[in-house]
Amino acid sequence: MPEYFITGVGVVSSIGVSKNEFWEAINNKKEVFSYVDGNKICQIGEGFLDGIANKFNTDSYDRSSKILLVAAQQAVEDSGFLINDLNTYRCGVSVGATFNCLESACLLNKQALTDSPRFVDPSLFPNTVTNAPASRLSIIFKIKGLNVTHSAACCSFLDALMYGSESIDVRGKDFIIVGGVEDFNENYLFSIDKSNYFDNEVSFIGEAGAAITLESSKSIEASAKRYYAKVIASHSLAGKFTGFDDLVLACVKSMLDKAKINSSNVDLWLINFFKPDVLSMLKEKLNISCVYSPVKKLTGQTFSASSGLDLIYAIGLLNKGSNKMIGLINLDPSFKCNSIVLTK
Question: Which domains are assigned to the chain?
Answer without folding.
Answer: 4-223 (3.40.47.10), 230-343 (3.40.47.10)
